[in-house]
Amino acid sequence: MTYLKGYVDHIRFRNEDNGYTVLSLDVDGDEETVVGLFPFLNEGEYISMEGDYVDHPVHGPQFQMRTYEIVAPDDIDSMERYLGSGAIKGIGPALAKRITKKFKMDTFRVIEEEPERLAEVKGISEKKARAIAVEFSEKQEMRQAMMFLSGYGINNNLAVKIYKEYGDHLYTIIQENPYKMTDDIAGVGFKIADEIAKKVGIGSNSDYRIISGIFYTLMRALNEGHVFLPKHILCRNAAHILGVTPEDIEEHLLEMMIDRKIVIEEDKETRVYAASQYHMEVNTARMLLDLNIHYDISVSEVETMIAMIEENEQITFAEKQKEAIHAVAEDSIVILTGGPGTGKTTTINGMIQYFEHEGLDIRLAAPTGRAAKRMTEATGYQAMTIHRLLEINGEADKERDLRKGATMFERNAGNPLETDVIIIDEMSMVDLYLMNALLQAMVPGTRLVIVGDSNQLPSIGAGNVLKDMIASEQFKVVELNQIFRQEEGSHIVRNAHLIHQGRPVELDNKSRDFFFLQRNNIQDVLGVLVYLVRDKLPGYVHAKPYDIQVLTPMRKGELGVERLNQVMQQYLNPPSDEKKEKEVAFGLFREGDKVMQIKNNYQLEWEMRNSKGFTVDKGVGVFNGDMGIITEINDYTEKITVLFDETKEVQYAYANLDELELAYAVTIHKSQGSEYPAVVMPILSGPRVLFHRNLLYTGVTRARNCLTIVGDRNMLFSMIQNVNEQRRYTTLAYRLNQIANESNEDGMDEFGL
Ligand SMILES: Nc1ncnc2c1ncn2[C@@H]1O[C@H](COP(=O)(O)OP(=O)(O)OP(=O)(O)O)[C@@H](O)[C@H]1O
C-alpha cells in the first residue's frame, strides 16, 4: 500500500456510468497516471490517496487508487491552482493569481463567508463576486449531494440530473418520497424509485408508492400498446406489481383523478387512462374531425382526369381504384386500404397525378425509413419518414415529453407544415403519439390521404389508429379488394388472402415463391433454417444472406428470437481474428453482425457520408425496428458503429448497447412495415395467444419474392383458424363518434332543436 498526494492535472477518461476514471496527477511537478473510481472529481482538485502501483500491459505503470479524499488546498499555490483550473466558472489562471495574491491563506474563507470582498480585486465586479461565491458553494454542495446519492446506488449521471432538478431539496425528496422523481426526472422509473424507497425504509403500503405504482402499471400497458386499462385489470395488475391488494389500489384512484394524473371514464366498462394519453386521444379525435372537410366538386371533371391518367399510364383502373381518386377529390381525409398486391401503390400514383394536375403541393411520408424508401421507389416522388417530415429536433426526451406535453418536432401547431396534401403509407404502423404529432402540424384545409393494410398487426406503439379510424365510420374509406399481383402468379399474395379469409393455404410446393417444409422437431427446424439462409436462398432470390430474414412469433424458447440469433450469428458471422467483439448481457456483438434498434431514440445522432468519407447529411433519431450492420467495435472510444440502411452511420456508446439487438431473426411484430426479398418462418409450437391469424398474415406479407415456412402443418392450420388476437385497449373510434355527436347536437341547439 502506498500513499500519494497531488493535483488533478487532467482527466483523460471517465466512464460516466460507473465513474471509472483515468487521470494525470501532478505530484510536485512529476506526472503520474492514476486509475480508479472517482465519480465526482474535477480537474484542479487536490487529492490524497491510498493504493498500489501496478504495471498495465498496454499503458505501463500506473497508480491504482483504493481510497481517496479530496483535501482542501492548504497552501496558496494549491488554492490558486484550484481556482484557476476552470472548476469555478468565470475565474481563469490570471484572476486566480490576483485573488490569492490579495487574500493569501484566507482566500477560501473570504469566498465562503465574505464574498463581497472579492470585488476588491481588480476585474471583479460586485455581481461577479456574488456569482463566484454561488458557484463555489454549489460545487461543494453538488459534491456532497453526489456522495449522498451514491449511497443509494445512484450513478453519477443520474445524480447530476437529480441535483439539478431539486438542488437542496433532494435530501427530503429522497427520504420522504423518492417516487416523485418518476414525474420529474427522465431516466427514473418506478423500479429505480422503488429500490431507493426500500433502502430508505419506506413501507410497501405507502401512498406515494401505490400511486406511483398505479401510474407505472398504466405506462407498462402503454408500452404494450394500450391507451387505457379497464379498471379491474389495472387494479389486478398494479396489485400484483406492488404486492398489495386490488382494494388498496382502488382506494387511490379517486385521489389520482383529483390530482389530474389519471382520467376515469364510466361506460360499459370503467376505463382508466393516464391523463396524458386521454388528452392525446381526445385531441387526435378533435383534430381529425376538424380536418375532415367535404368539397363539392364536379364528378365529371374528375372522371375526365381519371381517363387522362389512364391514358398517360396505359392502365385501366379497377372501379375501386377510381373510387379512391374520386374520394381524394371530394374529401380532405381519405383512407385507402387493401391487402398485398391490391394496387394501393398504383392508386397512390393516380392520386399524385390528380393532385399535380390541380396544382396542389404534395408531401409523402411513411412511419419507417424502409417504408419511405419503398414509397420513393414506387412513386418516383421523394418520400421521408414522418419524423423527418415533422422535423424532429432531438432536444426533448420522449418519456419526459409524454408526461409534460412538450414538443420534440419543429413542425407543430405554431409552425405547421406548408403543403396541400400529405400522403401517409403503411399507416397500420402509426401509433397514437405520432398521429397526434402529425395532426398538430396540419392546418384545416390540408388534405390527408392514409394508406395501409388494416389487417396487419397494429402499431408497436400505443393505439390502433388505422383500425379505429375505419371503425368510427367518420371518414371516407375505400377498400381495394381485387388482387392484381396474384394474376401475375404470386402465391405469397394468394395465400396471404386465403389466410386473411381463414381458409387453408396451398402447401403443395408447386409455387415459385411459397414453400412449406414439414419438420417435426427443433433441431431439424434449426438445421433447415441455417441451410436456407446461408446456402440455398441467396442464389434463389439473388440476394445476400443478410437480406434474408428469419421471422418468428416469439422472443423466448428454442425457436424464439434470442436463441435463433445466437445460432444464426454462429453460422452467418462466425468468430474471426479480424473481427472485434464486445460482450453484452445476452452474449456478444461482433463486427459484421446484423442488428436492430429496439426502442425509439429521438436524440441519437446519425451521419451520412459520401464515398470519399465526407459528411453529406446528418440528423437525429433512430427508431424501433431500424436495421443495420456493425461496422466497427472500438474498445478505446468504447463505441460501436452501426450502418443503417447502408447509408446512415450511428455511434453507440458501450453504455447504450441495450438499445441494440442481433437481428438475423426478429419477431413478426417488429418486422411490420418492412419487406424482405425472402422470409423464412419457423412455425412449430408455441403459446396460442401468440400463434394467431393476423400474426401469420403479417409475417407472410413481409416476403417479396420468396417465403418458406418450416415446421408443423397442423400448427400452421390452427394458426389460420385462431382469431383470438389480444385486444388493444383504445377508444379512438368511440371518441371520434362521441365528439362528432356532440358537435351535431350543438349544431341543432343553434337552430333551437
Ligand atoms: N388497375 C390495374 N390493372 C393492372 N395491373 C394493376 C392495376 N393496379 C395494380 N396493378 C399491378 O398489380 C401489382 C400490385 O400493385 P401495387 O404494387 O400497386 O399494389 P400494392 O397494394 O401497393 O401492393 P403491396 O402492398 O404488396 O406493395 C403491380 O404490379 C401493379 O402494376
UniProtKB/TrEMBL annotation:
Its EC number is 5.6.2.3. Keywords: ATP-binding, DNA-binding, Helicase, Hydrolase, Isomerase, Nucleotide-binding. Gene3D superfamilies: 1.10.10.2220, 2.30.30.940, 5' to 3' exonuclease, C-terminal subdomain, P-loop containing nucleotide triphosphate hydrolases. ATP binds at G341, T342, G343, K344, T345. It is an enzyme of class 5 (isomerase). InterPro entries: AAA+_ATPase (IPR003593), Coronavir_polyprotein_1ab (IPR050534), P-loop_NTPase (IPR027417), RecD2 (IPR006345), RecD2-like_HHH (IPR029493), RecD2_N_OB (IPR055446), RecD2_SH13 (IPR041451), RuvA_2-like (IPR010994). It catalyses: ATP + H2O = ADP + phosphate + H(+). Pfam families: AAA_30, HHH_5, HHH_RecD2, OB_YrrC, SH3_13, UvrD_C_2. It comes from the Bacteria. Residues 330-488 form the AAA+ ATPase domain. DNA-dependent ATPase and ATP-dependent 5'-3' DNA helicase. Has no activity on blunt DNA or DNA with 3'-overhangs, requires at least 10 bases of 5'-ssDNA for helicase activity. Belongs to the RecD family. RecD2 subfamily. This is ATP-dependent RecD2 DNA helicase. It comes from Anaerostipes amylophilus. The lineage of its organism: Bacteria, Bacillati, Bacillota, Clostridia, Lachnospirales.
